[in-house]
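User: structure tokens for this one?
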Amino acid sequence: MTILSEASELIRILKEKGRKMSAAESCTGGLIGYSITDIPGASDVFLGSAVTYSNESKENILGVKHQTLLQYGAVSEETAREMVLGSIEVFQSDIAVSVTGIAGPGGATPDKPVGLVYIAVADGPRVIVTRNIFKGDRQSVRQQTAEEAIGLLKDLAEGRL
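Assistant:
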């Protein structure tokens, strides 16, 4: 399935269920929001996406704890979890997705290679975080991240997670 067909299916499911969604993006820089808003009718279910590329914006916009960023780093399960919960809080959405990762080509460490991305989805207090290693150049990593994020959100909306 292409990213647009996944986004279209996600919108259909959310409309059927009367639910609203939001996103918190870091390494994708708005690609998730762009992909969703490319679908006619997205405004019925999509409240918005916060592009929180810096640590400061993660803290100030989404309420990610400074201690979380210091202890675990921006690219971590813990940060992805706080980002997705922050998105639900900021947008007052029913369901949300967050992504944080290293798209490359720089920024990697031995523990956090290029292509490492954490994706979190939540539908209230329940949060599911996945750890992914995507291969390819910067654009490819970002595209794969957005596709996986929309797919996970669709699965959560359908009750398959």
